[in-house]
Write a structure and sequence with these properties.
CATH topology of the largest domain: MetI-like fold
Strand content: under 5%
Number of strands: 0
Distance between the termini: 21 Å
Order of helices and strands: HHHHHHHHHH
CATH class of the largest domain: Mainly Alpha
CATH superfamily of the largest domain: MetI-like
Radius of gyration: 22 Å
């Protein structure tokens, strides 16, 4: 009971801090007469969001679609590649340097290549979201598999367990906390990738809506779109945090996780 009460109090304090920051933002805009072309007040953003939500919703749905497709592709490929890298020395030495090299390339530089391959539209956004989010999944899955104690593997081998048995019954379950941590990071950066591609090579999506709004100096609309993206990213982060707490409760040993 005390743990639940403490968690509720912590949530309320966090909410109060967030609301205080928005209030400070609002007061600063009015006190210093900040132009909406520079920084719109939260009240102006809220009014614009209410008035233009019907126009922004199709763009948000498009962005969420491309982000989720790219994210799930990165999850599938990331788990497979992470499993290879974490269990095979040859795969580690062959694949890992390539992944590091690809992840070091600015994703903006890859978008024109994706446009040549697939044309402007949804394809480049999905590929950009995939490329930018696959690396965290590979690294975390490989790290989770590498943390399996050699002594435990030796005991299981002595009991007659095969490498697949060890991987399936010990390695993969031990990797779940790392996988959920990767998912929370990957979904966030996947939004960055899809929106970046939409600002360059798409005629739909939040990125395209922001580009059009900024070209007409409608900054409240730009910030309204940013708020929608931020809120959507937070909701997905909270969803994966809930699933992490649901399926990997054993990893925290009853302690309340921070994220």
């Amino acid at each position: 009971m005390r743990i639940i009460t403490g968690a509720i109090v912590t949530r309320l304090r966090s909410l109060a801090i967030i609301l205080a920051l928005f209030l400070l933002w609002e007061l600063a805009c009015h006190a210093f007469s900040v132009s909406q072309l520079v920084l719109p007040a939260p009240s102006a953003i809220a009014v614009t969001l209410y008035q233009r939500f019907g126009a922004l919703w199709p763009h948000l749905a498009q962005t969420v679609f491309t982000t989720l497709v790219g994210f799930w592709l990165s999850l599938v490929f990331g788990v497979v590649l992470g499993g290879l890298v974490g269990t095979s020395r040859l795969a580690y030495e062959a694949i890992y340097p390539l992944l590091v090299g690809i992840s070091s390339i600015p994703k903006v530089a890859l978008i024109p290549v994706f446009v040549v391959w697939m044309g402007a539209g949804t394809g480049p956004a999905i590929l950009t979201a995939f490329v930018i989010s696959v690396f965290p999944v590979v690294v975390n899955v490989a790290t989770g598999l590498a943390t399996t104690e050699p002594e435990l593997e030796d005991v299981l081998k002595a009991l007659g367990a095969s490498k697949f048995d060890i991987l399936w019954n010990v390695g993969l379950p031990r990797t779940l906390p790392y996988l959920f941590a990767a998912m929370k990071v990957a979904i966030t950066v996947a939004f960055i990738g899809s929106i970046t591609a939409e600002t360059i090579a798409a005629n739909r999506g939040i990125g395209n809506a922001m580009l059009i709004a900024s070209s007409s100096f409608n900054m409240p609309l730009v910030f309204a779109a940013l708020f929608l993206v931020s809120l959507t990213g937070v909701l997905f982060y909270l969803l994966f945090s809930y699933l992490e707490n649901r399926f990997t409760r054993w990893a925290t040993r009853g302690r309340e996780p921070f994220a």
